[in-house]
Amino acid sequence: MQAWQVHENGEPSEVMRLAEVERPTPADGQVLLRVRAANINFPDALLCRGEYQVRPPLPFTPGVEICGETEDGRRVIANPALPYGGFAEYAVADARALLPAPGTLDDAEAAALHIGYQTGWFGLHRRARLEAGETLLVHAAAGGVGSAAVQLGKAAGATVIGVVGGADKAAVAHELGCDVVVDRRSQDVIAAVKEATGGRGADVVYDPVGGAAYAQSAKVVAFEGRIVVVGFASGSVPSPALNHALVKNYSILGLHWGLYNTKNPKLILHCHEQLTELAARGAIKPLVSERVPLGQAAAAVQRVADGVTTGRVAVLMENGAAA
User: Fold this and answer.
1) Pairing state of beta strands 202-207 and 16-20?
2) Which of 29, 39, 45, 94 has the fewest C-beta atoms under 10 angstroms from its C-beta?
3) Roughly how many angstroms between the first and final C-alpha of the chain, as a whole number?
4) Are 288 and 108 in contact (CB under 8 A)?
5) pTM, whole model, 2 decimals?
6) Is the per-residue pLDDT at 209 higher than 60?
7) 42 with 304: CB under 8 angstroms?
């Protein structure tokens, strides 16, 4: 079969190599899946660079989120078990963690209805307890993680403010349903958010960026607001001033979605049921901006790493999985 492999750490476009390799053999409790579509996530770039919290042995195949097919023909969503990731014709995954792919979504959309949407659901509902009528601020609103949070916020009845970088991304954020869009490249984010909220600020801030975005969040969060920290795409990890949180009465909430797989896996299934229902009634639909063949996966991962994409980029198998 064909698979992209990383033999040394570095930038995805430089270290990912397409090779002919043997199909992986599932370990106990695992299943072999024919990959139908693999969604590209920012952690794939971090894996290539050797900067992710998990460092699989070299060589490995990146790709942490797929829509695949079991040997008995079931269409499923899975997180492949590294080192046998999803940018390949076959992958392996934990049999207990397979989720049914919603019939209302195509393969690329189904592959994208997992990490980003689960993170958004847990962040907004489990951690921040977002309520209808509240104001939600989403950083990087046109990106893969942000676009999911925007849709989930709208589905929950919130007023959504999206922060983006550039006119093209602003247009995408409007299409996603943001009530207000702030272009950080041409607008003062703090002033724009305060104006949009009548000076009150945002009840919930969803931050997958860190760095300067977090500093802005602390200045625009409302009284008794909640800042949900879900990642550091900027590459800069902020150091919150806890005295500021004290005097403004707001909460800083961390979210590491992967922990639920071991700490409370039943919640993963419950969340998937909620997401499937939302997808069935059209309240959410993954924004897949690009669908590329397997041979273009390395270049696509690099574009995601460089932050120039919108929504999700999916890698599709062209003619099914070859032996």
Assistant:
1) unpaired
2) 29
3) 5
4) yes
5) 0.93
6) yes
7) yes
